[in-house]
From TrEMBL, chain B:
Source domain of life: Bacteria
Protein name according to UniProt: Uncharacterized protein
Length: 212, 159
């Protein structure tokens, strides 16, 4: 399941895989196996698609409590609908779209409105010692961690539209544009250009920071 | 189209800018700084137990959060939900005090409030299918109804 990159040793609990835990062409087959009672297929679906669901939730800047509830709701509903999905191959889009709608409901429910500027994430990125950091001992890894932290800060400081798009795009394994479209309610055709633009903007911020 | 102000210098992208590489770096950063919380991965794993081919799904057809105009000056307006499975309709009101609901057409039923794979709380139902629960669901919930020979589960929802 794990690609065995250098990260997997430093961050043991992080299911980071460069190659992708689930080949998107296999999603339909996994759904059908899971319907037939194959628990390993369900596990593979969770491993491969939960980062996408989490990214969608995070892109909408819910509080931690709301984020957890939406995430759970989405997976409960997915399990409930498993045998009835019209297009099992597009389970990723189904999950992304369901997550989006649940997020929007949270944001509409004014009585429960708990918009946040993601203080937890920002804090985590700026704290002196994070749990992740304590695992880092070599200087090279420390430099890498510093770079990641700076990148994250600049990403968080992007405009809302870019921040949302990039937060979904950075799910691991990388989501398809159809999934991104379902996650954010934007046309598939506009994702590519917007992505380029947002990444350029982020690069410019990093460069400006480096030059300062 | 954007909220970011001006666009970086022109020709930036012609200088061999590699967006894929930057996106990959972001992916690494997210895996370290904002991964799926392990407890949520476990929740998703456990959700498999909710997969039940025998139960009919009652789909959410009305949700006041989406389908109704906000009531001005009534911030605590109860959430109204309607679920439908074939001829069967379930109306539910979620308030601070708990749940009130009605099965239509009126009929006796056994009803439980589900809170996850392991949690099922029976609620009081009268012979006409009216039910009440003095607990507001904390988090995702669904109703499981047994009426006649059928089992119907409402779509999972966040209260």
């Amino acid at each position: 399941m794990r690609a065995g990159t250098l990260h997997s040793t430093a961050y043991d609990d992080v299911p980071y895989t460069r190659g992708g835990a689930v080949d998107r062409t296999e999603v339909g087959a996994l759904v059908r196996s899971a319907v037939d009672g194959d628990a390993a297929a369900w596990k593979a679906l969770v491993e491969g698609l939960s980062p996408l669901v989490w990214s969608v939730v995070r892109a909408h800047r819910l509080s931690d409590a709301d984020a957890h509830e939406v995430f759970s709701t989405v997976w409960f509903r997915f399990a409930q609908h498993l045998g009835r999905l019209r297009e099992p191959d597009k389970a990723g889009s189904w999950l992304a779209s369901t997550a989006r709608h649940e997020c929007l409901k949270v944001l509409r429910g004014l009585t429960r409105l708990t918009l946040t500027d993601d203080p937890q994430v920002l804090d985590r990125a700026s704290e002196e010692r994070t749990p992740e950091q304590s695992l880092i001992d070599s200087e090279e890894q420390a430099l890498q961690a510093e770079r990641i932290r700076r990148l994250w800060q600049e990403f968080e400081a992007l405009g809302e539209r870019c921040r949302q798009l990039l937060r979904v795009l950075m799910a691991s394994p990388p989501p398809s544009y159809l999934e991104v479209s379902s996650a954010l309610g934007i046309a598939v055709g506009s994702i590519g250009p917007l992505r380029q633009r947002c990444l350029r903007r982020l690069r410019a911020r990093m460069d400006a920071r480096g030059a300062a | 189209m954007d909220d970011d102000g001006t666009f970086p210098a022109e020709g930036f992208d012609e200088a061999g800018f590699d967006g894929d590489l930057l996106e990959e770096e972001l992916r690494e950063a997210a895996a370290v700084l904002d991964p799926v919380p392990p407890e949520l991965r476990r929740v998703a794993m456990g959700a498999y137990a909710l997969h039940d081919l025998d139960a009919e799904i009652a789909e959410l057809t009305f949700d006041s959060l989406v389908d109704a105009l906000p009531v001005r000056g009534v911030p605590q307006a109860p959430r109204m939900l309607t679920f439908r499975a074939g001829e069967l309709t379930v109306d539910v009101e979620v308030t601070e005090e708990g749940l009130i609901g009605q099965v239509l057409p009126p009929q006796p039923a056994r009803i439980e409030v589900l809170g996850g794979p392991q949690t099922a709380q029976p609620v009081a139902v009268d012979t006409l299918g009216r039910f009440t629960s003095d607990q507001t669901p904390a988090g995702p919930f669904a109703l499981r109804l047994r009426t006649g020979g059928t089992v119907v589960v409402t779509e999972w929802l966040r209260a």
